[in-house]
Each structure stands twice: as structure tokens, then as C-alpha cells.
Predict the 3D structure of the following.
Amino acid sequence: MTEPLLIVRNPDAASSLPYLVRIPIGDGIVLRTRETWPRTSKVYCHRHDGPWPDDAEIVESVPLRECSRRGAAIDIVADRRREARSQFVLTRARGREMIFWQTARVAKAARPNVALPKARAGGLDSLEIVVDTRERYAWKFAQQQATVTKRALPVGDYATFVDDDLVAVVERKSLDDLVGSLTSGRLAYRLADLTGIDRAAVVVEDRYSAVFKLEHVRPAVVAEMLAECQVRWPSVPILFLENRSLAQEWSYRFLGSAVRERLVGEEAHRILPDSE
């Protein structure tokens, strides 16, 4: 029989995450969390490094029908009629572990009900997108008409080349990764590097409105730093593209258009000397 999902009050009263949750996988995965269930939005979690406090105040013991790991996610099915299903997503961004707790309703709300077009990017018969070897859980462009190869890139996460020339780059960010790189100063260095590319962009897999729901840093500080970055490096836009699917689609179009622009320019350069 599956052990319950146990939620207790965090004995560290100074922590901004007031609860501990124990997921019955293996010897138990213990996380610090702000909420006892992801009812209206995904809940940020952080791995608890200390031992499980056996004498802590129990807030809730949720009986489970299922608790199973599937790739980067742990699916939870509670033995109750309402609020039965949820999911912990364990991933990494730039070497840092990111953990979110969400329900199917929250996940669905983040996916707009739109059908993405099937037309080729830039009208190209073929498009090769190069993915940096350090990119984890990379976009696969499975719904787009592109081939994907992996090799180390000098800057960015996704790029296109014409011959051996780098013509366009996309830097991909989750909201948490964006905030971390902003507040640490890493994003400033990355934007400075990206300005050396003819066409470059930073895409964020979230809504801009999510900035103002941040809990561990002042939203006004993040908004101000974003504005300062765009003023200082205006040639590299920072785009909030709602979710993974739309961020991938926009990047596909952007990279394809950059290749087409380069090819058209080279063709014009070959033709013009003969027409003078």
C-alpha cells in the first residue's frame, strides 16, 4: 500500500517556506514548500537538506492511490474525490535544481488553446537548429520542420548557421532562471556577449505578469532590472512567450527568418555586381 503524502509545519520558524512535504518515493523526498496543495498556481518547492522532523506538527496526511516517477515528474493521485491529482516537476536550470508542484488545472491554464501553424520557417526547404551541448531538457522542435544537432555554442542555447557563420542565437530562460541570472549579474554578461551576434534574443517560458507574483524577491526590483537591461542592450530583446510550446515556436520562426535573410543578402550580393 502506498504511504501517504505527509505535510508538516516547518520547525524552522524563520523560513519563508512554512511547510515540509514528504513524497513517498524511495527513502522519501522531503521538500520545503509555501502551500499545502497547488490550488490556484504552481508552488515553488526547495529540497530540505535536514532530517525529517518526526516530532513536527502534522498539518495533513493525504492518503494516496498512486505515487510514481515519470522522467522529471512525480505524479501524485490522492485517495479523495476533489483535488486528487498533482505533480512535482524536478528539473535543473544552469546547474541549479528547480522544483515545482502543480495540478493538471494549473498546468492547463499555462497552455493556451491554440493550434500552431505547420508552415516552414522562412519558407526554407530545410532548417538545421544547433542546440548547445550544455542545454538540459532541450527543445526538440518535434512539431516544427527542422533538424536538430548538438554541439558547443560560443553563446546562447539555440542557433542557426549559414556555412560556418553564426547568424542567429536564442537564449532560453525559465522565469526562475531569469530572476537568478538578473540578481546575480550573470544576465548582464550574457547580454553583452549576445550583442556580438547579428540577431539574438532572450526568450522566457512564462508570462510577464508572473514577475509580479514572485515571492522570494521583490517584483519591482526584477521589473526595474529587466527595463535597465533593455535600455542598455536594446539590440537583444527579452521576450515573455507564455510557455514552453510558444517559446519554441517563436524561436523556430526567428531562427528560420534569420537564415533566410542571410541567404537573400548573399544572393543579392552575387547578382548586383553583374547588373551594374
Q: What stands out?
A: The longest strand covers residues 85-93.
